[in-house]
Amino acid sequence: MKLERTELSLIGVAIAIAILAQFSPNWLVFTLTLAISTALVVMGVVMLMRAGLVSFGQGLFYCLGGYAVGLGGRFLGITDALVLVGLGVVVTTVVAMILGLLMTRYREIFFAMLSLAFSMILYGILVKSHGLGSTDGFGVVDWTLLGFTPGDGQATTTALMLALVLALAIALFLNRYFKSSIGLACEAIRENEVRVEYMGISHRKVLYINYVLAAAVGSVGGSMTALAAGHVDPTMAYWTISGEFVFIAILGGTGHVAAPFIAALIFTLVRTYAVELAPNAWQMILGIVLLLIILFLPKGIWSLFTRKKGAAS
Amino acid sequence: MTTQQPRLLKRTLLSVALASVGVMGLAGAANAQDDTFKVGFVTFLSGGASGPFGVPAAQGAEIVIDAINEGTLPAPYDSKGVNGLMLESVVVDEAGGPTKQVEEYRNLVQRQNVDAVIGYISSGDCLAIGPVAEEMEMFTIAFDCGTSRLFAELDDPQYMFRTGLDAVADNVGAARYLAETRPDAERIAGIQQNYAWGQDSWQDFTLAMEQLMPEAEIIANQTPQIFQGSYGTEISALQTERPEIIHSSMWGGDMESFVLQANARGLLAQADALLTTGESGLHRFDGQAPNGTILGGRGPFGAFMPDNELSEWFREAYEAEHGTPPSYPASKAAQAILALKYAADNSGAEGVPSSEQLAATLKGAEFPSVSGTVRMDLANGHQAVQPMYYGEYHYEDGEAELRNVRSYPGECVSAPDGYNAQQWIKEGFPGVDCD
């Protein structure tokens, strides 16, 4: 199997981050882990966007992934991080396979509202679950990784490495997926659904597979957030969080598999420095930055890179 | 030219974006100076909890910090600074949920190099921060959050402290106040915000009522959404049940809206409201709450502060600065800052005291505060024990005041170590001491 240029650069960047992380301050490593986790959920939003669907309920899968880690550790006694992430993916896939049957019938605002509704149902259930701490949530158990127990101060770096490996694997897969027949069919469906049907492709099937995949990817993001932050709470399924994912997706653009990662990193860094520099007006700074990007880069941050390439060739 | 310009703009944008990311990554290495003590103060500056709690708390903290640096506090805090060092605060917004707060906490400790962290109004944030504080070995004081799970879920805490009381004390105290002042009440109803705080409060209150007023009947509980604002349906539902007492743990704007609407609808003419956080509305009701409404202040805070030199100083200083007397969140924030000064002054450290020195000094300590003497007696010396106060609202000639105020000692309202709070109530308060 020959690796193409994008894949080589993805691997290169991942290795570079892994090496730089050894010399970076701990807070940056942690922020990076959260940004990568967020980017994975955003990736799910982007996958749906490529098929012309906007999900305002991706928090559902983010939350399922997070709670699978929390509950798996607490009630099933699982401590291995990979098993916990896997558990989240299994649970999320099952839920998405059921919801997908209904969701793929809807388009546009109806899809957006319905996805929002399902994630808010999960939020409502969790808020009513007094035994799970209701809105306070609960802590995630100390985890291990393939028999290795991260010692004092190693947990953040280990979490980043795990997130990097998972994100790289997912990015490589999605890069190919976007160019596969099913990935291209998604874009075709966005352009003209009826024509796709006439070409002999079932748009329901394509959208269904795409929906379930997007959910599974989002779940990994939620699980990684839970492992890194050490706490889960129902806010993960709240609609404002889902809105944040949509926003980062727009920020990055749908042009490339790397776009959500760059956008998530910029979003997180702008937010954390805005909070530090202007504790009373950080939302305004964040809003202005995002507004400027949308005004001047309507196709997202990624359009900067494509434009440059176009000019060079 | 027309195509050139946007391209140039985009290129500039790209380079600015990349450069700023790079700069951000490298910045923040600036170390705290040796002659200052840097404390991170985390409180709500935006969102629904900022108005009633977050901002008053920040104001209360600021007044005490300024006075510490000027050396104008009453004894025993009349020395300048903390352990002779200037006290510098970094204020952070608590909005955004536990995951974001964990991130900001790490940033405070590692990027801003604070020497201690004080903060957290939300219980969810406290629960998330506890293990991180222990992991990062950073002296941390929770000044307001009320969950009884904080130290139950933290094995052998070393660095995490709480200088306020938990919500169990609020609700056991509320039940005791009812048992003393309304022993004949038979029909008890409730209205709580539908989230952890409301659910926990109602659970603790009803458990305590079963023990203290077994004759009374719990007839209804309404759970509106948080920040709902309009309580017409809930008030009608409560009215049909004809309660004599309505317990509510609602806070801030929700609590005030409910009182105003329930009063206008006549609900509060047939029943007395018992508001566990009602003190924050004492100077805001302006007579719109009926006389006899029972108010709590989550301990000896705000209008319940006992008269001592510190509380008199704080009351005057706060009123001079902000035009109203301090409410309970302001007093609680002041108390946490005083705890920090006490720990730093008595740590015996040369220069900036370490987290270990601060923790060792505050652990099990007894220090004077705006709320009287605070004993760090529970959770192995990490949780404050203080009396719980309740009183009745009275409004006359444009002046609001508390009457029939009663206090219950800490041992009367807080579970001793080794007990799960709910278990302690169910077993009939073993080891209780109310004298």
Keywords, please?
heterodimer, A: 313 residues, mainly alpha, two-stranded antiparallel sheet, 2 strands, 74% helix, B: alpha/beta, Rossmann fold, 2 domains, 19% strand, globular
Describe the structure.
Chain A: It is a multi-pass membrane protein. The complex is a heterodimer of chains A (313) and B (435). Chain A has 313 residues and is mostly helical. Chain A has helices at residues 5-23, 26-50, 59-75, 81-103, 108-128, 155-179, 181-191, 193-198, 203-229, 239-252, 259-277, 282-296, 302-312; strands spanning 138-139, 231-232. In chain A, strands 1-2 form a two-stranded antiparallel sheet. In chain A, α2 (26-50) runs parallel beside α6 (155-179), α2 (26-50) crosses α10 and α7 crosses α9. The radius of gyration of chain A is 19 Å and the shape is globular. Chain A starts with a helix and ends with a helix. With 435 residues, chain B is α/β, with parallel strands linked by helices. Chain B folds into two domains: 36-165 and 305-385, Rossmann fold, CATH 3.40.50; 168-297 and 397-426, Rossmann fold, CATH 3.40.50. The radius of gyration of chain B is 23 Å and the shape is globular. The N and C termini of chain B lie far apart (86 Å). Chains A and B meet through α2, β1, α11, α12 and α13 of A and α1, β2, α3, α4 and α6 of B.
Topology:
The complex is a heterodimer of chains A (313) and B (435).
Chain A (H helix, E strand, L loop, with lengths): L4 H19 L2 H25 L8 H17 L5 H23 L4 H21 L9 E2 L15 H25 L1 H11 L1 H6 L4 H27 L1 E2 L6 H14 L6 H19 L4 H15 L5 H11 L1
Antiparallel strand pairs in A: 1-2
Helix pairs in contact in A: 1-6, 2-6, 2-9, 2-10, 2-11, 3-4, 3-9, 4-9, 6-7, 6-9, 7-9, 10-11, 11-12
Chain B lengths: L3 H23 L9 E8 L6 H21 L15 E8 L4 H14 L4 E4 L3 H14 L3 E3 L17 E3 L4 H15 L5 E5 L4 H17 L4 E6 L9 H9 L4 E4 L3 H13 L2 H4 L1 E4 L18 E3 L12 H14 L5 H18 L9 H8 L3 E4 L2 E7 L4 E3 L2 E9 L2 E10 L1 H4 L7 H6 L9
Parallel strand pairs in B: 1-2, 1-3, 3-4, 4-5, 6-7, 6-8, 8-9, 9-10
Antiparallel strand pairs in B: 10-14, 11-12, 12-13, 14-15
